[in-house]
Design brief:
Structural class of chain A: mainly alpha
Radius of gyration of chain A: 22 Å
Largest sheet of chain B: 2 strands, antiparallel
Helix content of chain A: over 70%
Distance between the termini of chain A: 74 Å
Oligomer: heterodimer
Strand content of chain B: under 5%
Largest interface: A-B, 22 and 36 residues
Chain lengths: 171, 480
Amino acid sequence: MSTTVILFTILSIGAIASGISLVTRRNPVSAAMSLIVHFFMLAGLYLTLQAQFVAIIQILVYAGAIMVLVIFVIMLLNLGKEENLTEKFSMRTTLALALGGLFVVQFLTAFLGKKTGMNALPEKSMSIGTTEGIGNVLFTQYLFPFEAISLLLLAAIVGSILLAKRKHEAS
Amino acid sequence: MEQDFLLSAPITFLSIMATILMVVDALIKKSSKITFTLSWLTLGITGVLAAWTLKHNGTAFNGMITVGSFGAFFDILFCMGALLTLIAARPYMQRENLEHDEFHSLILFAVSGMMIMAHANSLLILFIGIEIMSVCFYILSGYMRSSVRSVEASLKYFLLGAFATGFLVYGMALIYGATGSFDYNQIFMAAQHELRFPSLMMIGIGLLLIGLSFKAAAFPFHQWAPDVYQGAPTVVTAFMSTAGKIAAFSAFMPIVAIVSPADTEMKIQIILAIISAATMLVGNISALTQTNIKRMLAYSSVAHAGYLMMGLVAISAHHARGVSGILYYLSAYLFMQLGAFVIVSILERSGEKNLEIEDYAGLSKRHPVLAALMTIFMLSLAGIPPFAGFFGKYYLFTAAIESGYTWLTIIAVISSIISVYFYIGLIVKMYFTEPNESGESTQQLPGIASITLAVSAVAVVFLGLMPAGLLDVIKLLFGN
């Protein structure tokens, strides 16, 4: 077995285990912690696929920024006793299970019969995921959209501050 | 690369200045005068830069945007619209006691979004442009934060706009799937050959049409327009309903042109024709029953989107008259609609007073000049010669007839006749009815907004009397 396969096995088992622990934890904070572990496992999987940039972004954006948001929401909502909540969600759980099952079936039908096992990555895709590869495309071919997006974000930031700030006293 | 920067100067200059303006605004206290001066200078210079690139025709930044001709023509229209809005906004904002702070930079950001839309040569760029413009509009329509209606307009526009964006992105993704490219030229090339997934392409085009129809406020995606136009501050409405609509059509035209080769069974053409007919009928008939002047003008702007879509039908039938017809009509529409809304903004009193059509009774006695100008704009919007609106309609109607859509033209004529009722109704109200007993005696002067009115009125009359000037420019640039 090559190192890639060993790494893949470890990381995917870790990802699935943390995913299961995410949905089974009663305490929302420990569920959120499992989610962080899950994100790290996924980042590791991306690394085995030669996608360094996506892996780093996965940790920075998801495990970092988004998780802070999730924790904040948990804190602000102040959910209280978990046991009281579980009863109400029984209908939803059934629906979620059914949809999840459907998803698994879809995946199985899509991949069954296809050749399994890991193929060597094609030469061209080796450079796509690297920071160098992305930077190269971003600042040459996609320079204009890249700059334009920054304008969009700037306008959105200014606007949200404007809408949220306190009303000026009559000037 | 230097050539790229040089020829895309209008966009880059305006975007950089908008950012600088924001910083100036943050650093200097009581900066409204400085930012106002800076922003009109910026818009003026951008207009000149655009006029300078007008003769060029090519792409820049690896084919991401087009430079010159088509985009530059629209740049000039956007700058003109924004400039007239900024001038009219100054007395309005002072009266309504709104802070100017970010208003100027937001307007400039919106203009840069529109320019990116008009220059787009790739679906990716188009999407970014549409979003920049829309985000600025969502914020601007909620600019009167103390007014419930304004906040409601902003929220409504934001939610529906986000929904429409979903359609737009999905359509783009499907077109990418069908043709393998975001680039307009490559989509055009791919559409000429047998596609591997023609149904994917058709669904993609359909979703794209829905998204763009929303931005242009065409039936059945026009529902947001009256509420948003009514709730937003009137000067913002003036800007949204003119420059915003022009931007939507600047994006619509190339899209229709590039997907038309895939339209072998004329499905898209028929759909566009039906949307066009329905839009003008619904817009004009709904306008008949309105009592609020902003709502009436909002429905009338919906109807005008219908007329403009006749030009799109002609474009999809490969008729060059469609392009020149739309360009001429948009130029005329900019001035007449903007002028009408600016008059409304001058007569409006804080707390959303003086906005009913009833309040315009006897206006000719209180404000003879404003009443006369309003008459010019109304007659032009109704399409009565010798004003610009008449020639605009005339070119679009002939374009539709020459593309074989006589039935569409008949519907357009009928709905124009319907529209005369409420446009002339307002004139009758202003001139032939007695003012209300509660008519205000203290009148405020329009201030520098009169510059906007003068420019708009002169443009409407000039374009109407001498349409050949602008048409020659258009012909020079785009051939026929």
